[in-house]
Amino acid sequence: VFQLSVPLNFLGSVYRDMKQSLIDMESLFRLQRFSVRVKSKPNAPPLQLIHGGEITFDHVTFGYHPDRPILKDCSFTIPAGEKVAIVGPSGSGKSTILRLVFRFYDVTSGRILIDGQDIRDVDLDSLRRSIGVVPQDTPLFNETIMENLRYGKLTASDDEVNEVLYRVRLNELVKDLPDGVNTMVGERGLMISGGEKQRLAMGRLLLKDAPITFFDEATSALDTHTEQALLRTIHDLFREGGKTNVSIAHRLRTIADAEKIIVLKDGKVLEEGDHYSLLADEHSLYKELWDIQENLDIEEHLKDLEEEKK
Ligand code: ATP
After folding, report:
1. ipTM of the complex
2. Which pLDDT belongs to residue 34?
3. Rounded to whole angstroms, how far apart are CA atoms 119 and 100?
4. 34 C-beta closer than 6 A to ligand 1
5. How many whole angstroms separate alpha carbon 145 and alpha carbon 154?
6. Ligand 1 center to residue 156 CA distance, Å?
7. Subcellular localization, per the record (predicted)?
């Protein structure tokens, strides 16, 4: 038995390693959609996060096809340690920004700096290791809650995982389950909501402890107002210790408390500021988007009331 358990354990850990890379790859492929030929320069030094991961877009122009630019002379700064949101109409280039920071593609002109280093000059692996992503659709495995979380850091102790579980407020969910953290989730196990799934992904990322995190907000995650409020507070965990936290947001309510909101339109930065300063401008696109969403919320609310009456 002893002899057998060694190779089996070994296989188990190889399998887990494979799955962990799979998660990273999955998020990558979702962001990427196409294969690319970006490589490190020979002997490129690793990225040095000397200021906590400040990201600067300096006159960036980029298009997936040369004749169709998506970002046009785009300049902005995402300061380290602040909660920053990127918003804008569908197709304005929000996810493209994330793909460029990951260096799935190189800019056509201009440059992207992290803590002053042009990302084309640093080792690609070190760049990607520094960035964690919560993708729109989180891959969950048919395994226990504990195992699903641990993909963030395979060496995490049970205590570490439990701590994270608490921080993303999944302890409430787990408390009432007969098998607790050892409950299976996914197709053959417990079905969890879109929001809980994203919180699980956030837990993974907390374990991974990357200096820069991006949230590509899933609309399905925002099924309820409580869920929105929860996600907002959890966001704040990611900037502890001066880390960089960027949200690509579809619902403005989840990011209204960000210190900096960057409004994109047609590949350009149209407006920048916090919620109140952007709303104060009667003619801002932000105000227009906000009013549309608030009206939709009211309509939804009224519909819910109608349903209740029936
Ligand atoms: P949404 O809010 O709908 O997610 P977005 O602001 O994130 O939109 P992007 O995904 O950055 O927008 O896309 C910007 C534009 O680039 C779109 O017109 C899109 O069709 C185009 N695009 C995105 N990915 C590719 C690609 N791999 N190849 C070619 N065009 C692409």
Report:
1. 0.96
2. 47
3. 10
4. yes
5. 14
6. 36
7. Mitochondrion inner membrane
